[in-house]
Input
Amino acid sequence: MIEIKNIKKSFADKTVINDVSSVMKAGQCNLIIGASGSGKTVLMKCMVGLFEPDAGNIFFGGENFTAMKNKQRTEIRKQIGMLFQGSALFDSLTVEENVMFPLSMFTTWSFKKKLSRVNEVLDRVNLVDTNRKFPAELSGGMKKRVGIARAIVLNPKYLFCDEPNSGLDPQTSLVIDKLIQEITKEFNITTVVNTHDMNSVMEIGDYILYMYKGDKEWEGTNREIIFSKSQRLNDFIFASEFLKDAKEMRMLEEKGKIPNDRNIDDMLK
Amino acid sequence: MYWKEFMHQCSDIGIGSLPIVCIISVFMGAVSTVQTAYQLVSPLIPPSTIAQIVRDTMILEFSPTLICIVLAGVVGSKIASELGNMRISEQIDALEIMGVNSKTYLVMPKILAALVVVPMLVVVSGTLGIWGGRLAGSMGNIISPSTYDKGLLEFFVPFNVIFALAKAYTFAFIISSVPAYFGYYVKGGALEIGRASTRAVVISCILVLLADYVLAALLLGT
Output
């Protein structure tokens, strides 16, 4: 479980995060959503320690990460896996070496054992015959999957994903979302996903934190988000007429007022 | 992993720069012989003096300073752009989040590798420069190989080699640490990587020349 308490962060005179608190539970996908510039990436970077918050505390499994010294933080960081927006794979290393990197750094395993673990996680993210390839030879979706494999190779307790679907087609995005969700449940990981993709929100959002200009505007589940009373959140998630129609349809469905034969084609007409 | 990265950097800096170092050194030696012979017109000065001048010029100045200025361009821009690209593409952040000290893993092996291989390159350069002078002397009928070899052994001051190595170590630190600093702390995008790389090379070259003067004044000054 990750708990953030009263986090504040400013750059020069600009307040980017303003007193945000939340609890993100293990075994579920916790999504931070918001428009560009709402502070979600900064919040995530504060959580993993890449930025120091100006005020507030972050607790990993009850331990105050913010108050820790570098050596103690390193121990917590070994339990963290992170998937970056651009995958952040090491260009000069092959897929196999990229995934093996954390094992080589933090274990004393034999090469055979490390290779076996690497193949196991690559298999888990459905990547075959890519061990000898370099990141430049992979597609965007494959890079993301290598990034996930590298993030989970040490069996982390916490998984952070910064915009995992950016630059991917809708079908590949779904595959990545499903993969993140499955891994979260399978290994009981506390997963934090930073996204503005509404498909992800509806597919995997067990808990959703909506940020608006640095403030926590709303929090809840993906069942509750449809019926949210927050105008700002509604403006964000129902940005298109199509989604507004979908919401109306969903509400009518809930009330049992929609005929069974009406489908998405009707809405598009 | 650190050892592997260190060896990788030694290969990158050392083997990667060897061809350009060899070519430049041979031509520097050859040109030194031709130009020294051109200036020594007095019949009172023995031809073997050409070899002495080429030897001392190569050891004292050309091999350590000029080669390190070339390396500042070749190696320095590579270090700055490599680290800058890693910073922009969040690879350095990825290392930090894994709990790896990115400065120790990325910067230290580069500086240590430069400290090991740059003096070696300077020694190779000096040797090839002197050989290039011999070759140019014999090919252009300026000085016979035997006279040249005789001249090389005359008035040799072993301290000059120590001075050259002292310069090589100092310059190696400058041409690896300055670009590493500019690359590691780059902010922005591809344009900034290019700017950081150029700035790193320019500042490295200026610092090399400044250090060259300071070392000469300290170690050779009377």
